[in-house]
Design brief:
Blueprint: E1 2-8, H1 14-26, E2 32-36, E3 50-51, H2 58-65, H3 69-81, H4 84-92, E4 98-102, H5 107-111, H6 114-122, E5 128-135, H7 142-159, E6 163-168, H8 175-186, H9 188-198, H10 201-211, H11 214-217, E7 224-225, H12 234-245, H13 249-256
Bound molecules: guanosine-5'-triphosphate and magnesium ion.
Length: 257
């Protein structure tokens, strides 16, 4: 079974994306499993085919080990890591074509702890990829734009599997702001000009230095604008998934028509 991990900062729309994108590709005839790997989620808007909360309970960890909510989540993440083969076997027997995997709200719990590396190497048969969700709202200033790119490339460096970058929530973004983000990404000069206009003293120096790393930061795909709510951009996302994972011959044909 192939796997797509949804990764992004807190509230970037991972769970909404899992819900609506899985329904959308199902309507294209793809057999999809919804997998919840977020031990801390309270309400899921989709019915999970596998829910990690049946393996670990953060409430129980808090009670038994006297932990606070965040350290209970880190312990839960580490416990999930050692269960990768058990969890994979359970899901593999369900016989789906592709698994869409929701990951914890706090990005570091999956991407930068052992669980992320273990799952990116051993979860299901594969192949595996990441969809990295940018939240457009934290990319509007040149420095926060650069910080967002650093986070995305850090996830890529940590998990080392193919990664598709997307910018979520464009339904509520002003189109000119989405266009500006896209320009900064493709043309370092426009970013450099924005930095010179926006900042003074230390921030200006920092922005100028960091912008020199843009060619490295933008080595992944130019983020695809999407909305997990209105499903705008899903066609483009799916065609990239097809390219990366080799999924959905039928859908590729449908697109060609
Ligand atoms: N307008 C709009 N709202 C969105 C979109 N995607 C998610 N949201 C909203 O953003 C909020 C957070 O969405 P979630 O799907 O829970 O985000 P998440 O990344 O799973 O959140 P955590 O797991 O808590 O980090 C919810 O209120 C969603 O309805 C989108 O594309 N457009
Ligand atoms: Mg979520």
């Amino acid at each position: 079974m192939k796997a797509i991990f949804l990764i992004g900062t807190a509230g970037s729309g991972k769970t909404t994306f899992v819900k609506n994108f899985s329904e959308w590709i199902e309507s294209k005839g793809v057999d999809v499993a919804r997998i919840n790997l977020d031990p801390g989620v309270v309400n899921l808007p989709y019915t999970a085919d596998f829910d990690v909360r049946t393996y670990v309970s953060t409430e129980k960890l808090m009670r038994d080990l006297g932990l606070g909510p965040n350290s209970a989540l880190t312990v839960a993440s580490d416990l999930i890591a050692v269960k990768v083969h058990e969890i994979s076997e359970e899901i593999e027997t369900m016989g789906y074509e592709i698994a869409i995997v929701d990951t914890p709200g706090q990005i570091e719990l999956f991407a930068f702890r052992p669980v992320g590396r273990v799952f990116s190497e051993h979860f299901l048969e594969g192949p595996r990829m990441v969809i990295y969700l940018f939240d457009y709202a934290i990319m509007l200033e040149p420095l926060s734009f650069l910080a967002s790119l650093y986070l995305s490339i850090s996830v890529y460096a940590s998990l080392a599997i193919p990664q598709l970058n997307v910018i979520n929530k464009v339904d509520i973004a002003e189109p000119r702001l989405v266009k500006r983000i896209s320009e900064w990404y493709s043309n370092p000069l426009t970013l450099y000009e924005a930095i010179n206009k926006s900042y003074r003293s230390e921030k200006l120096k920092l922005g100028q230095e960091l912008s020199k790393t843009l060619p490295i930061l933008s080595s992944l795909n130019k983020p695809i604008p999407v909305s997990a709510v209105t499903m705008e951009g899903f066609v483009e996302v799916y065609s990239q998934i097809t390219r990366i994972l080799g999924t959905g011959e039928e859908f590729a044909q449908e697109q060609a028509i």
